[in-house]
Prior knowledge:
The protein is an alpha/beta fold.
Amino acid sequence: MTRMTSSARPLLNRRLAEFGTTIFAEMSALALSTGAINLGQGFPDTDGPEEVREAAVRALRDGLGNQYPPGPGVPELRTAVAAHQQRRYGLSYDPDREVLVTAGATEAIAASLIALLEPGDEVIAFEPYYDSYAACIAMAGGTRVPVTLRPHEDSFRLDLDELRDAVTDRTRLLLINTPHNPTGTVLTRAELAAIAELAVERDLLVVTDEVYEHLVFDDAEHVPLATFPGMRERTVTIGSAGKTFSFTGWKVGWVTAAPELVTAVRSAKQYLTYVASGPFQYAVAEALALPESYFTAFRDDMLVKRNLLAAGLEEAGFRVFRPSGTYFVTTDIRPLGETDGFAFCRALPERAGVVAIPNAVFYDHREEGAPFVRFAFCKRTGVLEEAVRRLKGVGGA
């Protein structure tokens, strides 16, 4: 029997009506159809440490995680996450009550926002923002309030006065991302202290996405917001194995927070995936215990790749904002005589055989992001060298 639908009401929930196919799917499809080098989507083109991969194989063979793991995550991983937070930042979390394993950081963000927001609550997020933020706020019924990071000299900076002015009586939550995707900005201690003071003063919850915590360069440092006075009890901190260990397909993320916040997030999370990535959780537990030399070598390798791509983009005529963190470089295409990032990125595979992402997709104020384009440098050195070679003539194409 054919089901009749009313033409007066669209099938898609109106909260999601503004969200179509992601730009990542579109640009990755362009890369495939043209044979272009894909510097758009942020995934490595090599696997992470062999010992971590072998740990996953061992877990599979030993029957660890092949059935449903515990809802909060396997004890070994929760203990490893707590130990990581203590060792690196002096943050003490109870593995049984204050750590929750999720299907990647994306689910952690979704579960946190769905759990903590009521319809009509305002959420302040820094734009440009990772695209799932807007969709997750919408699914929770919240209202997003963007505060724009703007170019200042060679980086994008936060205007603290603009942030303070954005807070209203309806503001429920600050959604913070540092190191910041896509701009590569790493918030300073002074900026984080000001954010913490504001959150305490206005009694705001904070969800902080720190998945690039191990990728900070030059003189930048990553400081978790939860370390500031008054913040541990109001902050949900999100981490992820994918970005640090280059196994993005495993989808292992986590939340650390006070017990009542973890309980709230778990209440939402259990009805999303319930559980996921069983054997991989055991492997990530071992990965978090790798010696410091791994994390140093990982960062140093990415720094070399950042410098390689940034120099090549500058030589090609782009204005380059060298990131202090993450594995993305944001560029300004106006020196090339271009102003429309969408049109530029859609033409770039044919013009130069390279795929990038228009930053405007990460903005509510599309005009603010129109001339900016993001490239990923989490690729093999030879791939980046070939991309640089291809981009040399883009200004005159």
